[in-house]
Amino acid sequence: MKSYWMNISNGQGHMELREVDVPVPGPGQVLVKLHAASLNRGELIVGQGLNGLGGSKPAGMEGAGQIVQLGGDTGIWQVGDRVMGRCPGAFAEYALMDVREIMPVPAQLSFEEAASIPLTFLVGYDLLVLQGHLQPGQWLLINGVSSGVGVACLQMAKVLGAKVIGTSGSQAKLDLLKPLGLDVGLCTRAADFHQDVWQATDQKGANLVVNTVGGTVFAENMRCMAFQGRMGFVGYVDGTLEASIDLQALHAKRLCLFGVSNKLRTPAQRADGIAQFAAQILPAFADGRIRPLIDRVFAFDQLDQAKALMENNQHKGKIVLNIANHA
């Protein structure tokens, strides 16, 4: 089968298309013929999640397709089922999925839409629900709201009954997100938005902040936080990995800071929360309250172009690779 690999050297990541054996599912695994996979910044860009020390590994982290072979102990899953899930090596014709991580594809969704869900929306669910404890009526502030994670958090927050403020350097992107429920759009890339946040929230501040940008907006985010506010970290596209902390505000306002990453988690820990997500959020995909926002779909042999679009940071929502229709 054809499979893309990420080769890292001299601080740069380069894609290589290889011919490799089709993997064989073991206990608790299924083999999926992939129809689509989506791109994620942290796996593709050195310094923004991708380790730049060197080496080579199968590329891709989430995809959707149909089960073609079962390993042992696969529970309810059957050959032919339409599934989506996080999986290593998703930029390939076939990939293995852990049965603890797979979910059924809602009938109304295409495989391209389904491939946009497993990683991004589960990260968002961790940010908003599992650690963020976002409640109906509360205010959510999202830095970089037009990113894949940002759009996912926006859509889920509206399903959860929250109000959303989003920042972006593009007014056109903010305008695109208005129909998805964005309550307040702030067009800025600078750390200059806390006064606008306080005004929008009746001088109370944001109950939850999702920081997809990094250290350059950290201090400004702290100024935006309400009493007992929470801030979740999921990325650092600005490349700034350090920031000063206002300890007095942290103490007096009883603030909570947390990170969302799967790098150090066990398979069981990564699977934690998936059943809750499936029960609480998947129905919103099935009935149309949430529809994945896809910027562009690329052919399987256009992965380099798809990666370049992500690096240019001009996309709105997810970038997807179509695998099933390649020659």
End-to-end span in angstroms?
12 Å
Mean residue pLDDT: 93
Reported CATH architecture of the largest domain: Alpha-Beta Complex
Rg, alpha carbons: 20 Å
User: Which strand-content bin applies to the residues?
Assistant: 25-35%
The CATH H-level superfamily of the largest domain is Medium-chain alcohol dehydrogenases, catalytic domain
CATH topology of the largest domain: Quinone Oxidoreductase, Chain A, domain 1
Number of helices: 12
- Could you give a short account of the major beta sheet? 7 strands, mixed
Tell me the helix content: 25-40%
How many β-strand stretches? 16
Which shape, going by the Cα principal axes? globular
Q: Residue ranges: pLDDT <50 for 5 or more in a row?
A: none
One letter per element, helices H and strands E, the order comes to EEEHEEEEEHHEHEHEHEHEHEHHHEHE
Structural class: alpha/beta
Compute the number of structural domains: 2
Specify the CATH class of the largest domain. Alpha Beta
What features would you highlight for this structure?
alpha/beta, 2 domains, 12 helices, 327 residues, 7-stranded mixed beta sheet
What does this protein structure show overall?
- The structure is a single chain.
- The chain has 12 helices and 16 strands.
- By secondary structure, it is α/β, with parallel strands linked by helices.
- It has 2 domains: 2-117 and 292-322, Quinone Oxidoreductase, Chain A, domain 1 (Alpha-Beta Complex); 121-259, Alpha-Beta Complex (Quinone Oxidoreductase, Chain A, domain 1), CATH 3.90.180.10.
- The strands form 3 sheets. Strands 3, 5, 6, 7, 8, 15 and 16 form a 7-stranded mixed sheet that branches. Strands 11-10-9-12-13-14 form a 6-stranded parallel sheet, with helices on both faces.
- Strand 15, helix 12 (303-312) and strand 16 form a beta-alpha-beta unit.
- Helix 3 (118-130) crosses helix 4 and helix 6 (194-200) runs parallel beside helix 7 (218-224).
- The two termini are 12 Å apart.
